[in-house]
User: Fold these one by one.
Assistant:
Number 1:
Amino acid sequence: MKEVGFKKEITSGYYLDPFNGFQEKKVTIELRYDETTGVACRILPYRVRPAQKPDLDEFLEKSPESLCPFCPDLFEKITPRFLPSMIAEGKFKRGEASLFPNVFPYDQNNNVAIFSSRHFVPLNELTPGMMKDGFAVCRDYFHRVVEMNMGYKHCSINWNYMPPAGGGLIHPHLQTIVSYKPTSFVQRLLTSAQNYAAAANGDNLWNNLIALEKKADKRFIANTGSVCWLASFAPKSMAGEIDFIFREKTSFFDLTESNFSEFLSGLSRVFNYLYISNFASFNMSFYATMTNNNYFWVQGKIVPRFVLSPLGTSDLNYFEKLHNEIICPTVPEELCRELQPYFKDLL
Ligand SMILES: [Zn+2]
């Protein structure tokens, strides 16, 4: 089986250590590069972690229900509606969940979905039942877009949960994007998968990645039904990255309702892990094609986000923003071992 392009190199630095009588100290840094994603990162031998949960009360005080556009008082008055050609009712609804156009769109078709009228939902309460309808309205919307036959090819479901991850509102909400062209990162994944197939007698990159990671037994977290969960070899965030891949699903419309349940079951376990580990924020993206693409399997990523006390220091710095390399004090193989117990009943 052709390797999937994980590159690793070790480099060392030296200094005289003020905490040990200025004795010579060796520091080892592991440079990693993933040919599939193009992500370069540096795994550092020390762990920087948010030791304490951020003060969530502060967020709640600054963003009360009374000012929230997604809470019941303001919701119908100040959230946009779709043109009637999309949906006569103006919004997609299921139970308490609702999907409507983003008032500050990033793209031609950028919508927001809320799960319920509940203003703040802590990470450990993001259960499959709580999230189900929010993801279902995204599916309903994608199905409607296809019905309208406008030739869109790519879709994504995205989540900035809480302000450290760029969330502008604490009321949990997803964002969907439907487009003709993929984003540059998704384009990278598509190109890598095609190149891999060309070099490996037509083999599917994701199939081989899962098989190799399972065999290596270092970053393979678990399966929830058809969904495989991995700790990324070269993470896109300081606190590591958790990947999910839907086996053999080559379009969003291959996914059944039970595939979504399998996904939400895994997602809630990841959230539980984050909650217990004192994280309070994450980004998630779920990438899919809207027509069958045999090179690409529906998949996505979750990255924990945090700010460092006492200054509220960002987890992004010049290295990531301007050099396109990630400083990662979280060892992916350790992240995997920490996550596995949360999936234990499935193994
Ligand atoms: Zn709210």
Number 2:
Amino acid sequence: MPTGQRSIMRTLTFFQPQRLVFGCGCLAECLAYLKSLAPAHLFILTSGPLASTASSLQTELGRAGVSASVEAGIEGEPTIADFEAVTERARRAGATCILGLGGGSVLDVAKLVAAFVNGSQSINETFGIGLLHGRACHLVCMPTTSGTGSEVSPNAILLDESAKLKKAVISPHLVPDATFIDPELTISVPTAVTAATGLDALAHCVEAYTNKFAHPLVDLYALEGIALCGRFLLRAVQSPADMEAREGMSLAGLYGGLCLGPVNTAAGHALAYPLGAEYHIAHGLSVALVQPHVFRFNAEATPERHAAVARALGVADRPDSLETALAGARAIEQLTKDCGLDSHLGAYGVKPDDIPALAASAMTVTRLLRNNPQPVTEADCVQIYRDCFRPNAAPQLHAARCRPEG
Ligand SMILES: [Fe+2]
């Protein structure tokens, strides 16, 4: 670079599936792809509600001479023990290709099984960023919910039950070889899951766009994902068969997933993880519970970025950026309520006395807290959790901590 010219944009690397197929009915293309791939043994990982779809795939593949087995045991938030048991069964089956067909939990486990079925590392050696050595097994993902973004992300989350912590493996080796996103598969998803996963997609986009390490290349996906959530989430919740809304939310989930690798989330997810680990609140719901309060907290640091989020959600401009941003927090809160979710932490068995332990646990998620546009202390976490017990909380301004946007 010539002397005197300095780049102001940091270098960013995108890892994406080699094949990304999006569109209604692309389940058929996934089947054709697997037939042409003709693996020695395909291990299909799914959950109970999708077992019949997986069995149909298994039958079709069998007719084409492709050996396949179905594992339908992944439900809820998977633990390390769940993952290890499934990996052992995949190993015994002689899996050379893994297909994850399901929601984020299924896909996370499928990604890890593909990496560990013939790997030599232990899972504990790989928690963190970039510690996984490689993946020899082919990996195909097909999401049946719209929101987690796991189908394109390098992230996989497991619950460490002994530590009561959600732990992440983050590695480019976890990005699938091929991903097929068929919005038709999301039609039968229960309303509460549509709501929670949709709010998770919104959170991925919001936390990436307002991230300390936000990047113009990712901003594109993030802002468009936020706009899609604003337009289609409520429609998908209220009218499950509305295909335009389902397509819009599948796209929003994809865009949110594309934000996770190069930028990732921040304090919203860091404060949500203890709620999932301690109280088994579903991931999307736990994120939705804290999101408006974290948004208010962060808006003071970068009001312009937060105002842009509000505008993407359809909020009209207010006299200044911070007011627009705070109106955005109210819009997120209202969307959560309109989706039928109780936004009061007490409704999920959490007690105010639990807050100090929750705050201490959230502070351990340093890999995400360091992404936050506003520095977060343990006292801040305590205040944010307290706000979660006060629906429609008035903005808790921390004017002394405001700093210029950057
Ligand atoms: Fe998430």
